[in-house]
Write a structure and sequence with these properties.
hydrolase activity, 3-stranded antiparallel β-sheet, 2 domains, NUDIX_hydrolase_CS, elongated, single chain
């Protein structure tokens, strides 16, 4: 046993949704005491840093009900069961932006909120975009607006908290460190 490991003694399933599962685990702590952990199970997601030939960042604006406001974000989406993350990334790029690519580079993977969720995001990069001849059908309950902005414009949106999510902030920091102007 690892010195910080918590041993699950009982799990209670609370909710099974279309995207997430919520459970409460009773755990024994490393010091022998017990506690409860509320955990969200998530299938994982992808996000794509996509640059146009002009060096603009491809983004989408969409309403986020949990926040009761719209955010500007890099394209992203949920992994389907058994789907390869790179396949998901290409699909989501196409569905949300009308662009496609055959050149996706995995940048990193990261957990979004490890204190209560197991969602793992696979972050990809491409600067080899092709505009699709016809726009694919997106998700029926997803409404997005395509944006192509400079890094400077994105930084202004961050100041206004219109870009205000971790994956997009991570992406912009990555681009700054790469020297994008």
């Amino acid at each position: 046993m690892h010195k910080f490991e918590e041993i699950t003694t009982h799990t209670k399933e609370i909710f099974q949704g279309k995207i997430i599962q919520l459970k409460v685990d009773n755990v024994t702590l490393p010091d022998g005491n017990t506690s409860k952990r509320e955990i969200i199970k998530h299938p994982g997601a992808v996000a794509i840093i996509a640059l146009t030939d002009e060096g603009n960042i491809v983004l989408v604006e969409q309403y986020r009900k949990a926040l009761e406001k719209s955010l500007v974000e890099i394209p992203a989406g949920k992994l389907e069961e058994g789907e390869d993350p790179q396949t998901t990334a290409k699909r989501e790029l196409e569905e949300e932006t009308g662009y496609t690519t055959d050149n996706l580079q995995l940048i990193n993977t990261f957990y979004t909120s490890p204190g209560f969720a197991d969602e793992l995001v696979h972050l990809y990069f491409t600067d080899h975009l092709q505009k699709m001849h016809s726009s694919p059908d997106g998700d029926e309950d997803e409404f997005v607006e395509l944006m192509e902005l400079s890094l400077k414009d994105c930084e202004q949106l961050e100041q206004q908290q219109r870009i205000h999510d971790a994956k997009t902030s991570y992406a912009l920091l990555y681009l700054k460190l790469r020297g994008l102007k």
